[in-house]
Amino acid sequence: MTTPAIITVAITGSVPKKENNPAVPITVAEQIESTQAAFEAGATLAHCHVRNDDGSTTSDPDKFAALLDGLRRHCPGMIVQFSTGGRSGKGAERGGMIALKPDMASLATGSCNFPTRVYDNSPDLIDSLAAQMLEHGVKPEVEAFDLSMIFSAVAMEKAGKIKGPLHVQFVMGVKNAMPVDRPSFDFYVDTLNRLAPDATWTGAGIGRHQKTLVEWSLERGGHVRTGLEDNIRLDKDTLAPSNAALVEQAAALCPRYDRHPASVAEARRLLGLELAAAA
């Protein structure tokens, strides 16, 4: 494979908590500093939540605005992607930050079970979030927690609800959702290639599976996600000292598969974000 590999860094979520790993950034200032270090280590896309002072995630548009401003100043050209996931709020408030016009925003195209709750994405909510992304020129990253979400995304693109080409993230390893299983992963990739041959995709493994998905994705020609939102360890015995350390680990794996970490220009070209780069 010779396609550059876009490295996404998921800097923080609501889990793990900071007490599990002190490197997890909480405040906007910490997030900017952590993302800048990851950017310098080779990440060209930042997946972002924001948190309250107690560590819980929030949909507060002011915090998202401050984070976006800081990342644009300290990480020139880096692709900024906001999460509209269920941990950031309920219903329509989950899309309250889309009007800030980040480069991208996450979009789950179906519901599934999480470890202790249902990740609820009703058809009306999905359509509403997608419509806001269309209105503000924000590219969705389709988060696929099971196979049906891939088919739903393709149908939404054909109906004009999502502007193509699609970018899909295969999320594997969330308890009660899609497990980390190589035949299933390959079926995901083959199905997307069949239904949407111009689509791009990223593999995201949760917890101890993060490195596994990085390697599988590099082998199959996709892009990769790493970061302290998904995994707090470099290996089973070592806490990750930073988001940058996890990015460095992913970048170091690229040459094994005849890949290299994408530059900002390469990442934007691959995702069809050239105009955003020029702006």
What would you say this structure looks like, in words?
The structure is a single chain. Helix 4 (147-158) packs parallel to helix 5. The strands form 4 sheets. This protein has an 8-stranded parallel beta barrel with strand order 1-2-5-6-9-10-11-12, surrounded by 8 helices. It has helices at residues 28-41, 61-74, 123-136, 147-158, 182-195, 210-220, 243-253, 264-270, 274-278; strands at 7-10, 45-48, 50-51, 57-58, 79-82, 104-108, 112-113, 118-119, 139-144, 167-172, 200-205, 223-226, 233-235, 238-239. It starts with 6 loop residues before the first strand and ends with a helix. With 279 residues, it is of the alpha/beta class. The chain has a single domain (7-278), classed as Aldolase class I (TIM Barrel, Alpha-Beta Barrel).
Brief sketch in words of this structure:
By secondary structure, the chain is of the alpha/beta class.
- Rounded Rg: 17 Å
Spatial sequence of strands, sheet with the most strands: 1-2-5-6-9-10-11-12
At the fourth CATH level, what is the homologous superfamily?
Aldolase class I
Specify the biggest β-sheet: 8 strands, parallel, barrel
| Beta-strand content | 15-25%
CATH fold-type name: TIM Barrel
Give a count of the beta strands, DSSP E runs of length 2 or more.
14
Q: Total domains, how many?
A: 1
Please identify, by name, the CATH architecture.
Alpha-Beta Barrel
Shape: globular
Helical region count? 9
Classified by CATH, the class is Alpha Beta
| Helix content estimate | 25-40%
Helix-strand pattern: EHEEEHEEEEHEHEHEHEEEHHH
